[in-house]
């Protein structure tokens, strides 16, 4: 642990810093801004309940992203089950994505879980590889592998013969 700063981070400051960062990342992953806002609030509500404990962490932001990741994964599983059930009764519909990169993010959402989260944290959150590794609790080399595989898959699915070059930030 690092020595306590002169002015410890308050929950209100933490919320003000993290909420505007969580929502776009979750929106890109889920394709639904309202759901993204709800999940960000849920993750931050858990942080509030555990504030006495997580305020001592070196990186409380990583903790709240892990919580958001778990909540989003649970929501995605629920959503898939709901869509299957709705299709069975012929009332299926898809949420409309308002991001300019609708096709890309639809393909990102089809990637395996770890690749999807790695892409979102790296590109939407603009995190360094080391920070992504911290949030996902995996090695930096594993983050690079997930990014490389995700880029290759997306390039193939988008019909782009030139894969994006590696960026180790």
Describe the structure.
With 169 residues, the chain is an all-alpha fold. It folds into two domains: 7-98, no CATH class; 100-169, Arc Repressor Mutant, subunit A (Orthogonal Bundle), CATH 1.10.10.10. The chain is built from eight helices and no strands. The longest helix has 29 residues, at 60-88. The chain is globular and about 50 Å long. The two termini are 25 Å apart.
What is this structure's SSE topology?
Layout: H1 11-30, H2 33-49, H3 51-54, H4 60-88, H5 102-108, H6 113-124, H7 129-136, H8 140-158
What structural keywords apply?
69% helix, Arc Repressor Mutant, subunit A, 169 residues, 8 helices, mainly alpha
C-alpha-based Rg, rounded: 17 Å
Overall mean pLDDT = 81
Number of DSSP-assigned strands: 0
Helix and strand succession?
Answer: HHHHHHHH
- Structure classification: mainly alpha
What percentage of residues falls in helices of 4 or more residues?
55-70%
The major β-sheet equals: none
Global geometry? globular
Tally of distinct domains: 2
Cα-to-Cα separation, first versus last residue: 25 Å
SS element count, helices: 8
**Poorly predicted parts:** 88-100
**Fraction in beta strands:** under 5%
Task: Write a brief structural summary.
The protein is an all-alpha fold. The chain folds into 2 domains: 7-98, no CATH class; 100-169, Orthogonal Bundle (Arc Repressor Mutant, subunit A), CATH 1.10.10.
């Amino acid at each position: 642990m690092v020595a306590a700063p002169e002015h410890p981070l308050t929950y209100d400051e933490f919320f003000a810093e993290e909420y505007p960062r969580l929502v776009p990342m979750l929106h890109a992953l889920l394709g639904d801004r309202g759901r993204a806002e709800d999940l960000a609030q849920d993750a931050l509500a858990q942080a509030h309940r555990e504030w006495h404990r997580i305020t001592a962490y070196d990186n409380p932001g990583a903790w709240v992203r892990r919580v958001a990741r778990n909540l989003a994964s649970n929501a995605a599983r629920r959503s898939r089950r709901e869509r299957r059930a709705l299709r069975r009764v012929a009332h299926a519909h898809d949420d409309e994505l308002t991001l300019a990169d609708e096709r890309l993010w639809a393909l990102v959402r089809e990637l395996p879980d770890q690749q999807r989260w790695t892409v979102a944290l790296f590109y939407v959150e603009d995190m360094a590889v080391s920070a992504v590794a911290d949030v996902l609790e995996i090695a930096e080399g594993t983050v690079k592998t997930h990014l490389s595989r995700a880029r290759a898959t997306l390039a193939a699915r988008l019909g782009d013969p030139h894969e994006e070059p590696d960026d180790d930030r």
